[in-house]
Amino acid sequence: MSDSISPQQPLAEMAELARILGHHHRLILLEHIARDEQPVERLVEASGLSVANTSQHLQQLRRGGFVQTRRDGKRVLYSLSPGPLVSLLDALRQYVDYNHGQIRQLLADSEQQPMRLEGISREELRQRLQEGGMTLLDVRSPEEFAQGHLPGAINIPMADLEQRLAELSTDQELVAYCRGPYCVLSQNAAALLRAKGFKVRRLDEGFSDWQAVGLEVETSE
Predict the structure, then answer these.
(1) Which residue in 26, 35, 81, 144 is a FRET match for 66, CA 20 to 30 A apart?
(2) If one looks up domain 118-212 in CATH, what number appears?
(3) Which candidate in 43, 178, 185, 190 is catalytic?
(4) What is the CATH number of domain 8-82?
(5) Is 178 among the residues known to form the active site?
(6) Please, what are the averages of pLDDT over each run of 10 residues along the chain (221 residues)?
């Protein structure tokens, strides 16, 4: 039997670590623990959570190897585990700052090009879909599209869009969408298509918002 590690195993481990970090209460606790070793009582006060809730999140972080404990009399003190966790938290913060910068740039562009941010609301889109005569364009990755998309949408990732313009009809209005209101892919797609002469709008929200309110979605096998 081979002892080699499957190429997917590190990705699965990364996904599990991301799942544990994927709760803002745990990130709040890590922010406080990163400053100094902390007892549970102080973390409860700093986070505003209940003792039970704080303890539950700390146990998740401990199981993921993000924090470690030691006893000081009757108190249990939490500190960061060895490893590049501070760098990881800094990287997440930098990415959030990058996204905010992208949004600020979009808003600045909209002041100079008012038509660039022309959108369509979820309710208007639902009505227009019933009437027909419109093409939904999903510019997310094929993997995201396969997991779920708006009914009847076609998938052309933003990176491939300029090379695949021939697949789109100029006779119908296009509505581009991506992950959510802060995803810039649909904004960039709308700008590109408009520059190429297509009649296009962008969904004000995105797939995550559409799905969150319980509207119909399709998946691809």
Answers:
(1) 144
(2) 3.40.250.10
(3) 178
(4) 1.10.10.10
(5) yes
(6) 65 90 92 93 92 94 94 93 92 84 63 58 89 90 92 93 91 91 84 89 89 89 59
